[in-house]
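Subject: Sanity check before I submit

Could someone independently write out the structure tokens for this chain? I want to compare against mine line by line before I put it in a report. The sequence has 250 residues.
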Amino acid sequence: MQGFKRATTSLKTFTMHENCNTCDPDHVAHFYSVPLIVIVENAATDGEWLNMVARHLRPSLRYLLKLDKNMVDIRQAGGIGEIPKEIRRLATERSKIRPSGAPIRIVAIADSDAKVPGQPSIQANDVRATAAEHDVASHILSKRTIENYIPDSALKAYCNTRKDQKDAANLISTLTGPARDHYPVKAGLSQKELDATAIYPDDTPLEVGMGDFILDLLENFSWTIEGHELRARDGSAELDQVLDTLEENL
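---
Independent answer below. Compare away.
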């Protein structure tokens, strides 16, 4: 398989068989008619987050993620520790119909859970290693969680209605650099983590978090997210890499 850039757009990627003169056309057609499987920790939150990212950065892909289950099947592993098990199970099933030389058309996406830059959790590293072992494409987010990619402006607009979240949103929005990228948005910062890392100001308040707010924001306040602010919060075109990986396996 070879990924290549389409001449009409630098963002759209495709895959194709090379030297496939001996391929069984029916076998190949069947394989590419089954959905791309995307394994995530939580199909509701991670699926809606991927939909939001695609809507802003790759609208053509958003339709497939949101509406066409015949093309993309988002599977819930039930936690990052369960993703490797799903990779093994689904890769074994998919390999039974996979033509020689084709990508297995499974993608695993997971939070890094990294408390500091460049240090993914043991579980995140296990996802990456298991995916590589089974020829499955994977992407481990460089920021801590999907919540860390939500722009400050969207957090502030959200708490204008969800006023109980105002203190947490304001605190998170004051952070910059690694502290903003790796702040534990759900639970807030613990004393143990503050003592163990050097990326936060010493006077950072403890245990100021937003809980499980992300699905509420994505489902009811998605209008607060602007594409250019999402790219700025990303800061490294990582989200385009995630979308490229999905497209390359479609």
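---
OP: Matches mine. For the report I'm noting this point. The chain has two domains: 2-146+236-249, 152-224.
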